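Subject: Protein entry, chain in single-letter code together with its fold tokens

Category: Structural biology, sequence-to-fold work with a learned token vocabulary.

Notation: Tokens come from a learned vocabulary of local backbone shapes, not from coordinates.

Start of record: The labelled sequence and token lines come straight after this line.
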Amino acid sequence: MDGCVKLTPPKICRHFDMEYDMKKVLIASLVVVGTLAVASVGFAKEPIEPIGPPQGINVAQAELGKKLFFDPRLSKSGFISCNSCHNLSMGGTDNLKTSIGHNWQQGPINSPTVLNSSMNIAQFWDGRAPDLKAQAGGPIANPGEMASNHTLAINVLKSIPGYTSEFKAAFGKGPIDIDQVTEAIAEFEKTLVTPNSRFDQWLGGDKDALSSDEMAGYTLFKDSGCVACHNGPAVGGSSFQKFGVVEPYVTKSTAEGLIGVTGKEEDRFKFKVPTLRNVELTYPYFHDGEAATLTVAVNTMGRLQLGKKFSSAENAQIVAFLKTLTGDQPSFALPILPPSNDGTPKPEPF
């Protein structure tokens, strides 16, 4: 076995290796669903819902996708992997204003967290990818990110015997193609959920899980209107909203949001509402990364979106509530990647 994420209550282990006992997964999932059904009385009227375990995961594809997620050989330099910008040790982000790409290029936008990303209405800030599979292929071929191309990336994988056998086992067909690569990465990313936050425990009936300040912050969060956009199990990610409702948001960023996808003027500066799960880990904030702290982010959102100025005490309470949304982080042994051979295309880091 290569790792375990404990969800309490109840407890289940989430492993992704070829030996996994799927009967245990089914039983554990049924237990969780039953527990959540019983606990639903406690959160039925709340705009935020608890995170449950991942459902319907193809274990072989997820295990393969985990290796691909960490494999820098998918990049031209042989140095950048998916994990470079979506570091699973750092809340699924890189904690930079904008990410660093090939040849130390500065990216145009802040990297959103990959954690709980399967709950998003679409992927990327502007929603240009409808799902995780569509998203996974973009960075590989983007000259400002991994700077490879799909043909080269597939040739690298085809040259590695360990990968050819794993793709055959996971998909039952050959040869390797980009569709299989993106499907495997997406399947792994579906497993990256973070349940069992203290707020989820409170939703489940543990009324001692939150302090009085945290509860006051949640009340402010609801009463001020934040839940209009930040709701559901991901506390966001389910809609596109204009950034700068009451007054414009001033930024040096050239990103214009959903208009780049739809071409509609009414979609200018509409961005996908980010999840607030694990938000204390995913700084800096906003699409341009200009809000360095939660305190700044809360004040800015209150002023621009709600026309409200929070006092220092109110801000601190909201921030305290937001920190209760940090759940169990994905935990597993780092994958051991199959070695290249003499015929594997060589990286070009410089």
Notes: The beta strands are 240-242, 270-272. The radius of gyration is 21 Å. Residues 22-43 form the longest helix (22 residues).
